[in-house]
Write a structure and sequence with these properties.
alpha/beta, 16 helices, 13% strand, binds pyridoxal-5'-phosphate
Length: 461
């Protein structure tokens, strides 16, 4: 990961290219435009989730197969978005399709346990080395329940999170994410800021943000909370941040967080909704060798069906097993989702599957870095496992403050347009990263690198 001296970019040129690429995308997506005009009359904003909104209209998809997706205009693109990282299996994987079809004929929902849920829990226990598991239906449900378990286990209300991290859409964690830079507050005493309307300040105040990659700041803040008589129940964090592009933990950081949380009697929750199953068979927990008290999974777990999981130590799960915490949900462990998850774990995300992901990642990171170096762009390629990105910044990003201060928003947006116009379906949003799949070929990665090189060349011409 290097950030070399870079070419001074012409901002007028960036604006001109952005306008050209925007026009080209508009002209080639009339079907999406028509769908949007129809959709917005019934579906608010024309989308099922605000994260699918796009100006002037979203690109509506029709189908996917392997590494490809097709939009409603029939345009084929190689998918590097993969549903915000839910699909490292690739689309319509035959093993998952078979398992789901088998289950469809046997009944899809009982709200009673089935064997597939047992098998999936056994496999997650093996991969994460954590002895107890429960299922939910999304990442938000997983983080909400994990925090409740931590609160019940410790008898405390306050929680600590990383400033800028996203952990789902419930009130406990919709705090201090993507806020205007001026409102962050002092690094030693970051503000608890509700993310969007409808979140009571009194609830947000229970959530205390600290900077990523700074164990000293976390320790000082926890010690102060203890002095103030509001010791935290838990620290919830992504072991590698996946919503500022990709920000890896500095060497020794996770070990220091583990040591200080244990010493101060605070439970450690690794939110592996994005990292889990994407960066190693046993997620960040395996990859970095640091064991949390609780872990949350979702996205890739279901192989394209909605599900999530919470794993934990016996001590953390004691409140679940005793019935002190109601960990519940009608669709928890839904048979269709569990059949897909089982097939994914047993037949797709296997040691051979991870070898493919690692090989493609190495190729793509190498190719992107080579383009950056050759054209002197301000940025660097960074990633781990199936996840990666080009971070457009003259400085290395280590936390939210450095991201806000240095990320080149205009380049991030231009690069998305270049991708979309050259057969690359990339995650929208300048905070996002790519997710590779076991179905991606070396040629798919070449296509990504070629689009990137075209942009680099146009920018520096
Ligand atoms: C790290 C992390 N945790 C939790 C969530 C919430 O997951 P979901 O959207 O399935 O509720 C997300 C979603 O992007 C996430 O990235």
């Amino acid at each position: 990961m290097s950030v070399e001296a870079t070419a001074e970019l012409d901002r007028a040129r960036i604006a001109e290219l952005t306008e050209r690429e925007q026009r080209r995308l508009d002209e080639t997506t009339p079907g999406s435009r028509a769908m949007y005009e129809r959709a917005r009359r019934a579906l608010s904003g024309g989308v099922a989730s605000a994260y699918q909104e796009r100006d002037p209209w979203p690109i509506y998809l029709e189908r996917g197969s392997g590494s490809r997706v097709w939009d409603v205009d029939g345009t084929e693109r190689v998918d590097f978005h993969n549903a915000f990282g839910s699909m490292p299996q690739g689309h319509a994987h035959p093993a998952i399709t078979r398992a789901v079809e088998r289950r469809l004929a046997l009944g899809t929902q009982f709200a009673a346990p089935t064997e597939d849920a047992v098998v999936v829990a056994e496999e997650l226990k093996r991969r994460w080395g954590l002895p107890r598991w429960r299922f939910v239906n999304s990442g938000s449900e997983a983080t909400m329940d994990a925090i409740r378990i931590a609160r019940a286990q410790t008898g405390r209300d306050t929680i600590v999170k990383i400033f800028g991290s996203y952990h789902g859409h419930h009130d406990y964690v919709m705090v201090s994410i993507g806020v205007p830079y001026e409102q962050i507050g002092d690094r030693e005493d970051y503000a608890s800021l509700p993310y969007g309307g409808g979140i009571p300040q009194s609830v947000a105040d229970l959530t205390v943000p600290v900077p990523f990659n700074d164990a000293g700041a976390m320790e000082r803040r926890i010690e102060r909370l203890i002095e103030e008589g509001r010791p935290p129940a838990c620290v919830i964090m992504e072991p590698a941040m996946m919503n500022l592009g990709v920000v890896l933990p500095e060497p020794g950081y996770l070990e220091a967080v583990r040591e200080l949380t244990r010493r101060l009697g605070v439970l450690l929750i690794f939110d592996e909704v994005k990292t889990g199953l994407c960066i190693a068979a046993g997620g960040a927990t395996e990859r970095f060798g640091v064991e949390p008290d609780l872990v949350t999974l979702a996205k890739a777990l279901g192989g394209g069906l909605p599900t999530g999981a919470i794993g934990g130590t016996e001590a953390a799960f004691e409140v679940v097993e005793s019935g002190a915490v109601y960990q519940v949900g009608t669709f928890n462990g839904n048979p269709l989702a569990m059949a897909a998850a089982r097939a994914s774990l047993e037949e797709v995300l296997t040691p051979e599957g991870y070898q493919v992901l690692e090989a493609r990642e190495e190729q793509l990171l190498g190719a992107c870095q080579e383009v950056i170096d050759r054209y002197g762009l301000p940025g660097y390629a960074v990633g781990i496992g199936a996840k990666g990105c080009v971070t457009f910044s003259p400085e290395r990003i280590v936390d939210y403050e450095s991201f806000k201060a240095h990320q080149d928003k205009e380049l991030a947006e231009l690069s998305w347009l270049y991708n979309m116009n050259r057969g690359i379906y990339m995650t929208p949003g300048r905070e996002e990263e790519w997710t590779l799949t076991v179905a991606h070929s070396p040629e798919d990665c070449d296509r990504f690198a070629a689009a990137f090189e075209e942009m680099a060349s146009d920018l520096t011409a």
